[in-house]
Amino acid sequence: MDKFKTSTAKVDFPEKVRGEAKFTDDISFPDMLFAKTVRSTVARGKIKKITLPKMPEGYHWFCADDIKGENVVNIIFSDWPVFAAGRVKFIGESIGIFVGKDKEILDKLASEIKIDYEEETPVYELTESYIHKAFKKGDYEAAKAKAVKVIKHTYETGYQEQAYLENQGIICYFDENDKLTLTGSMQCPFYIKRAVMRSCGLKDDEVRVIQPAVGGAFGGKEHYPSMIGSQVAVAAIALHKPVKMCFERAEDITFTTKRHPSHSEYEALIDQDNNILGLKIRVGLNGGAYKGCSGVVLSRALIASSNAYVFENLDVVGDVYMTNTTPTAAFRGFGSPQTIFAMEMFIHHVAKELGVDPLELRFKYLAKQGDVTANNGHFHDPIVLKELMEKAMKMSDYKRKLKAYSKPGCNKGIGMSIFLHGCGFTGSGESDIIHGKVKLVKDEHDHVYCYAAPVDFGQGNRTTLKKIVSNTLGLPEDQVSFEAPDTDHTPDSGPTAASRTIIIVGFLFEKCAKHLKEIWKSGERQEYVEPYVGPSYIHWDEDTMQGDAYPGYSWGVNIVEVEFNPVTYQVSVLNTWSTYDVGRVVDERIAVGQADGGLLQGLGYGYLEEMKCVDGRMRNRNLSDYIIPTFEDAPHMETAFIDNPFIYGANGAKGMGELTLVGGAPAVALAIENAIGRKISKIPANPEYLMEVMKHEN
Amino acid sequence: MVEKYIPASKKEALEVLSKHDCYIVAGGSDLMVMKKNTAGLAPKFDKDILYTSHIDELKGIYEDEAGVHVKAGTTLDEVLNSKLAPALLKKAVSQVASANIRHFATLVGNLANASPAGDTIVVDFLLDAKVKLESVGGERIVDVENFVLGVRKIDRHPDELITELIFPKLDYSGDMWWKVGSRKADSISKVMVAGYWGIRGKIVEKFALSFGSVSIKAVRSHDIEKEIIGLSVSELKARKNEFIEKYGKIVTPIDDQRSNAEYRHKVAMNIVSEFIDKVVGGK
């Protein structure tokens, strides 16, 4: 019995099942005030004049003029102002907040404020590039000489909304020592701390951030809470009172960040033996009004653009385009769902055009240990992709079904995606930029407390990290606890992002526990702090995008079976079979939870979830119009893991948070292709799109 | 400030309505969403509220010579579990929202809110349902097709309470219900089609089709039905495209955040085609 894998009860089950967990909107303080955002009603323009309504006593207005530090949200590229300063760039941009005791009066003030704009012509098309990246492998132009054929296709992906259960919300208050403190729905406590320090002009010891229970994030709470945190902090400092701002669902869906829509052009050079000599890839992402973290999203989209395949010649260029729309930012997968969808469809379409078996073509280019990556780094670790594929094909009876479903008119289909995901920050970022640290404290009763920054927003960090520590120390699980992040007591182990929690923070905890074990003295208070030291062989140049893009990779295969209704063009997802290499799983039930949830979110992205932006306005404003799959839509799912221990992972574990999402869309799209016998080049492949596709003969 | 009335009986409810213009809250599953306010604030009701969900005499399903009577306080779940409710109605009800909403939403509420996407209204139209309204001055019965006037508009006077929906006995040999939603549960319909038919010998004796989510209210054409009734099965088969075209003219959907007009129209016509195939197929 593998003690690591055996499922344990999630530590947050009891408090959540009993309804005792305190989420942001459950938290209240004496004298607490509420904040209500006033937003731009035009997509692009100058603010000519703000006319405030008559303000009742105890009600206040805060805007750009009230910012004591820098008026920027501290994101990777800090171009997004906390409050619009003189001009607005999208409908819904925060101009200011009303603060006061009664929400009804705040709503009234927000409806009465008058803002005069000098409107400018907004941009909605992908025409104004504001981030540009490129890299090459081999020599694509020279390879052209050997090509007898060039195949080109274009792919499009839409917005995706994180649709976490709990809307965004932050409270800023003063703790027992009168220190400025923020608590709220968040992914990265230290990001909020640094953002508030910057916008409010405060020092490191003047801001504290504490994480309460958080109801889902999926990337949507990586940066946005830094903005609302800064906004409520401005008011709380000025009034010296607690200020809370929690979003309504419509406000959250319409104005907070979501996944980048994309447009990708793929070109393949083919020689006389039907070999792919090289790929030329052009990727465009819609970044919305502000850059924020879009540069990194683009970077990761491009790195993933040839997916789990190795080609000799690559010419990869990408741009992020400014549009006057809600900014796009982090979302589980971070750029790779867009390009992995495109690559998986493309290799299939190339095979079809060449008249060769898509499976054979894919096998021919599968990455193997030692291969040179797209960025001229190496796949250093063993790769078990072939085993993953064979196992998934066996579980699903893939080959037989594929053949049976290829007969016209049977309306059933099966599709397979294979994919990889880089874990941790890009390149050597973990060692060079993040410098993550964790701390273990043992008290006099030999109880061990784990301190680190990962936020458990439902995915199970509190359970898995604690388990790594208790197993390493050989202690019963109830002798170890995981403390919710509090920036005054928790070392900065980095953000809860980039599939890094287990591969990086888990690994740190394992090392830290080993060190604590070495110095263990029963009955004495002891503590140990462990800094991250990554693989020394990882080198990366972000400017040229050359080198090893990630410290390690996880791999996966999804096979999806669908039924197509030719009367209504609706798709039912019947079954899925998945295999993953995540090194070794830390806890089987939590791993399956990530696998099922990630795949369902990826399937939703592929065939269901559509957000329309018309003239700068999001038309889908609630969860009855923005359609995510329900339990009834969820297929029967089977999942298996293949062990492939990673030497820089806790007990061999790698990341899996994002991996499980990226294969869903191409697998379901390929299954639909198989069912309808026509080419899919856009997601979501929803009934309206499939109606269009069915108009054309294949 | 709005008043809230919690009458002890139907009689008391009618008395309240004789003096006050009220929102009538039965299940509240539609009204509470329509009157939604910022979290933590009371819903935005702009006139008085009359609660009826606790009044026992407004609940239940019974049958008499006029047909099956579904009283106004009957929940969708109770309809679903009733032996008396028409089978086609139950099919439609089983796909409304989710199980938890069906436990407090009422069948009459679905009609009274008169949403163009109200699922059960399409079946009410198809089955010639009649609406019974009562007031202190008496009662009246209205055909459901005349009762629904438009988007969220119904023929109810402020002093009236809908007390029953009556489904006359209909005899037919086959029926069909299509709800085309955006997903399998908790879904607002993009297109709905309900239909029934009856064949005697080789003659189409009965034929009815109604549509939802394709116009400001549910749609049914008695004119087209009259043309079809009396045709032989082979005549209907031969003239299928002609009738699809005729139905195509009364189905006039729009683009919105849930779908587009072309899709709704095309799917409605595909379903009419399927339906006619089924009728002439004799099943």
Please outline the helices and strands.
The complex is a heterodimer of chains A (698) and B (283).
Chain A: H1 13-17, E1 33-39, E2 45-51, E3 60-63, E4 87-88, E5 94-100, H2 103-112, E6 114-119, E7 128-137, H3 140-143, E8 149-157, E9 169-174, E10 180-184, H4 189-200, E11 207-210, H5 224-239, E12 243-246, H6 249-255, E13 262-270, E14 276-288, H7 294-303, E15 313-322, H8 336-354, H9 358-365, H10 385-396, H11 398-405, E16 412-423, H12 429-434, E17 437-442, E18 448-451, H13 461-473, E19 480-482, H14 501-519, E20 526-531, E21 540-541, E22 546-547, E23 552-564, E24 571-581, H15 588-607, E25 613-614, E26 617-618, E27 636-641, H16 659-662, H17 664-676, E28 682-683, H18 687-695
Parallel strand pairs in A: 1-12, 8-28, 10-11, 14-15, 18-19, 24-27
Antiparallel strand pairs in A: 1-5, 2-4, 2-6, 3-5, 7-15, 8-13, 9-10, 9-12, 13-14, 16-23, 17-18, 17-20, 21-22, 23-24, 25-26
Chain B: E1 4-5, H1 10-19, E2 22-25, H2 31-34, E3 48-51, E4 61-64, E5 67-71, H3 76-80, H4 87-93, H5 99-102, H6 107-112, H7 119-126, E6 130-135, E7 138-143, H8 144-147, E8 148-150, E9 153-154, E10 161-167, E11 174-180, E12 191-200, E13 203-212, E14 219-220, H9 222-228, H10 233-238, H11 240-250, H12 261-281
Parallel strand pairs in B: 1-3, 2-3
Antiparallel strand pairs in B: 4-5, 5-10, 6-7, 6-10, 8-9, 11-12, 12-13, 13-14
Helix pairs in contact in B: 4-7, 11-12
Architecture overview:
- The complex is a heterodimer of chains A (698) and B (283).
- Chain A folds into 3 domains: 24-122 and 163-255, Aldehyde oxidase/xanthine dehydrogenase, molybdopterin binding domain (Aldehyde Oxidoreductase, domain 4), CATH 3.30.365.10; 262-426 and 544-695, Aldehyde oxidase/xanthine dehydrogenase, molybdopterin binding domain (Aldehyde Oxidoreductase, domain 4), CATH 3.30.365.10; 429-531, 2-Layer Sandwich (Aldehyde Oxidoreductase, domain 4).
- Chain A is built from 18 helices and 28 strands.
- With 698 residues, chain A is of the alpha+beta class.
- The mean pLDDT of chain A is 96.
- The longest helix of chain B is centred in the C-terminal third of the chain and has 21 residues, at 261-281.
- In chain B, helix 4 (87-93) runs antiparallel to helix 7 (119-126) and helix 11 (240-250) runs antiparallel to helix 12.
- The mean pLDDT of chain B is 97.
- Chain B is of the alpha+beta class and 283 residues long.
- At the A-B interface, helix 2 and helix 18 of A face helix 12 of B.
